[in-house]
Write a structure and sequence with these properties.
7 helices, about 200 residues, 2 domains, Glutathione S-transferase Yfyf (Class Pi), Chain A, domain 2, globular
Amino acid sequence: MKLYYSPGACSMASRISLYEIGQPAEFVRTDIRAKRTEDGRDFREVNPLGYVPALELDGGEVLTENGAILPYIAGLKPGSLAPRGDALTEAQLHQALGFLGSELHKAFGPFFANPQGEAREAAMTKLQSRLDFVEQHLGDGREYWLGGKFSVADAYAFVVLSWADHFGISYDDRPNIARYLERIRQRETVQRALQDEGLLQAA
């Protein structure tokens, strides 16, 4: 099994999740701008769209998209990183991953292009509305995204929410998010992922 990743990108959620279940994997660093892996391979041979994460299975199949890869990893050790229960419980996990991918992750997207002026203001307005929702969701003593147990949703949420520092966005007025990030950051698997991607000092 190979995980194609870029340091600090959303692919780190898959790395954290693999560490959580003790699943051996090869981690292949990928330059998503040049579309090249660290061994010189054209990354578009793995994922024609050219972005991470991509998870290459031992049989040669390739999974892309966090909404597919994270539940797959959770399924490798049932009950560890995804709640076990009825159809509603499963739907709530997919609801979380859907929001994190299509709303929160997407809202951070424009900042990677360093928008200025009105463009930055518009992007910030949208992001702030999503962060308002997260702050409310994490209220009332909620330790993890789905309640009382760490899941793949937390691995994803941690990575995306951590991007705020890179863009000079503060959580001083959002204490629930700040406490949540610190709680997740203290996990051994998260520390290991940050270390292995060369980001521990920055964290």
